[in-house]
From TrEMBL:
GO cellular component, one term: plasma membrane
Entry keyword set: Cell inner membrane, Cell membrane, Membrane, Transmembrane, Transmembrane helix, Transport
Subcellular location(s) per record: Cell inner membrane; Cell membrane
Name by which UniProt lists this protein: Transport permease protein
Matching InterPro entries: ABC2_TM, ABC2_TM_bact-type
PANTHER family: INNER MEMBRANE TRANSPORT PERMEASE (PTHR30413), TRANSPORT PERMEASE PROTEIN (PTHR30413:SF8)
Source organism of this protein record: Microbacterium esteraromaticum
Domain ABC transmembrane type-2: 48-286
Keyword Repressor applies: no
GO MF terms held by the record: ABC-type transporter activity
PROSITE patterns linked: ABC_TM2
Family from the record: Belongs to the ABC-2 integral membrane protein family.
Ranges annotated as spanning the membrane: 47-71, 83-102, 122-151, 157-180, 192-211, 261-279
Topology versus the membrane: Multi-pass membrane protein
Length: 294
């Protein structure tokens, strides 16, 4: 044995440091376990079980429809307003659940984080996939209602819905990584998350048409531009064009889509990518002390 000889460490990894999101693709089995665990335990010991996935959005829809459709008279101003409303509610619900679950995913899995090392990004990614699974029953109801009123889907509309889902998931993951890391060190980060989730329904055209915002901000075009660049606004409009617009009977959706929507879509995609980079960078900076902070 020769003392002082260099040791080959090429076959080893530094504990606690990996390649971030890229490591998730090499841990498919662990990801499936976390998803199975999350979906199996969501309604454990619940009398209604998965029925709550239908009851909650239905109750939410009834309240919004009564306030905005009946009291505020939006039901007369927008053709097939119930479908317009529910399409937006479904999109925002996906964002709220994915973002909220991703934010709390590290704290909720503190036992695993403190005992073993595994890519911590597995937890927020599993959370947004679980949110997507719970989103499917709501889409099923929306599809049934659309078919009843004569929905005639188009390839462009369906592709828009898929793109809207992708935008919501990427945006939720980026925000979830950022606030999830912050939430471990500073627990009041959860309060900021609740504020964002509360405002999400009102800062996108869910309960009202975008044209009202355009009219209210007619003297501040730059504010309306920022409004249209909101990834959630773009995703909701993609849902409207995929589900609601084909039921209006005109067959022409160009009048109902926001101005410069192509620019808004590109801006939303850039913002989603930027948020994902910021979230991953922040997450990797804070993850070294997750076990100690928990």
């Amino acid at each position: 044995m020769t003392f002082g000889a260099p040791i080959d460490l090429s076959g080893f990894e530094v504990p606690g440091r990996g390649r971030g999101l890229l490591d998730v693709f090499t841990r498919g089995y662990l990801l499936r376990l976390l998803i199975r665990k999350g979906t199996a335990t969501r309604y454990r010991n619940s009398l209604l079980g998965w029925i709550w996935s239908y009851v909650k959005p239905a109750a939410q829809f009834v309240i919004y429809y009564f306030v905005m459709g009946v009291i505020m008279n939006q039901n007369r101003g927008i053709e097939n307003f119930p479908i317009y409303l529910f399409a937006g509610v479904v999109a925002v619900n996906l964002f709220n659940e994915a973002f909220g679950n991703a934010t709390s995913s590290i704290v909720d899995n503190r036992a695993l984080v403190k005992k073993i090392y595994l890519p911590r990004e597995l937890f927020p990614i599993a959370s947004i996939i679980i949110a997507f699974v719970h989103f499917l029953p709501q889409v099923a109801i929306l599809l049934i209602v659309c078919l009843v009123v004569g929905w005639q889907p188009t390839m462009m509309g369906l592709a828009g819905v898929v793109l809207g889902i992708v935008i919501i998931q990427i945006f939720s993951l980026g925000l979830g990584l950022f606030f999830g890391a912050m939430n471990v060190r500073f627990r009041d980060a959860q309060n900021f998350v609740e504020l964002i989730r509360m405002f999400s329904t009102w800062t996108s055209p869910v309960l009202y048409p975008w044209i009202l915002v355009q009219g209210a901000l007619s003297n501040h075009d730059w504010l309306f531009t920022l409004y249209t660049w909101n990834p959630l606004t773009v995703a909701v409009e993609l849902f409207h064009q995929g589900f609601w617009a084909p039921t209006t009977g005109t067959g022409d959706t160009t009048d109902s889509i926001m101005p410069d929507f192509g620019v808004a879509l590109l801006a939303a995609l850039v913002l989603c990518a930027a948020m994902l980079v910021i979230g991953q960078t922040t997450f990797r900076r804070f993850e070294r002390s997750f076990a100690q902070d928990l």
